[in-house]
Amino acid sequence: MAYYLLVARDWVIAHPYQTALHAVNGVIFCTPAAATVPFFNTLGFTAAGPAAGRSAAAIMSWFGTVPAGGLYATVQSAAMGGFGASSAAIAAQAGAVASSSIGWLLGRGG
């Protein structure tokens, strides 16, 4: 057992950036809201609705009316923890897996 811990420690020391990438992706995979909530807030989609002066409000005013079940409504629903949240969580988890896979492949020289 001690041998494997030493091997893991040596790998972490030799590959600090890959280690950080995999650690962050692990957090996102286990708690996707850690990525989706800040992402939606940056765009202006908040739990209270579109934030004034942000991209979400500008898009909504440009559209005029937003159809139920459309992309805008689904993203706003995800930001509010509604039916779109599961889709956003799955997308974040898939992105984390893809990112770690690409990082692993590039780290191997492939």
Automatic annotation (TrEMBL):
An annotated GO cellular component: membrane
UniProt membrane topology term: Multi-pass membrane protein
Superkingdom of origin: Eukaryota
Main subcellular location: membrane
Cellular localisation: Membrane
InterPro entries: IFI6/IFI27-like (IPR009311), IFI6/IFI27-like_sf (IPR038213)
Record key words, sorted: Membrane, Transmembrane, Transmembrane helix
Family assignment from sequence similarity: Belongs to the IFI6/IFI27 family.
Protein name (database record): Uncharacterized protein
